[in-house]
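#onboarding

Welcome to the new folks! Below is a worked example of what a typical request in this channel looks like: someone posts a single protein sequence, and someone else replies with the predicted structure as tokens. Don't worry about understanding the tokens yet, we'll cover that in week two.

Example request:
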Amino acid sequence: MKILTIIVALALAPCLRGEPLQKIENCVLVPAAWADGDSFGIRTPAGKELTVRLYGADCMEWHVNDATEERRLRAQRRYFGISEAGPNPRASIELAKEYGKLAAEEVVRVLNKPFTIHTSFADARGDGRHPRIYAFVTGSDGTDLATHLVKLGLARAFGVYRETPDGHTKDDYRAQLADLELQAAKRGLGVWSRTDWDKLPQERKDQRKDDAETALAVGKQPLAADFKLDPNTAARDELMKLPGIGEELANRIIEGRPYPKAADLLHVPGIGPKKFKAIQPHLELATH
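Example response:
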């Protein structure tokens, strides 16, 4: 049975980010070969099948089907300091994918009993092709799934954040997951057990250089004058087409939705007057 998408909710995404979270209890996992640790299918008690994307946690890609997913996996490997693990790059890639698979298997284990999601149905498309919604997922024992995966070293604290079901701010949740990530790294859990600590600084430096070069290349190749997107509805990878907008900044734009007017993007950390001037010609907000 195909995973159904909530087209109406996605169409209303700019209005939904500010909406309170809806609690849906007694959900069940829908097994699927494509699922991974941070994105998977669920079924609600009403029989609705949804694809959810966890807030705050990013697991290793282990279904790599295109250049975009390969770049994400390379960035993840560098983040954990394992891109040179093994005798060659292929060995490092397979190691990373194995941890992605372990994260997916852990999700299946934790969600083997009915669980709860909290969602406002905010659009969580990464590349714009696969409709997903952001959600907090809580296991039958009260475990927050994103927290659990970060604790085990099977995910990094990275992605989109928002106020939690128990009322903590998005910044509190971000800091909490970052602290748990630090503990997992100190204990050598999960992917961190394979980290080459001597090479980690250089690996992250290399990734920052790649990110900067990508931003520079985009900046030197102006988008077509008629290229427009709505920052309230654009997918992460669509936002990353804008000059100077990398993945982390794209996530922060998503966190800040909705934007009544384009100038409100100046409130997004990392977007100053210069960067806003560069992206403004490509912004087009829908009217409601």
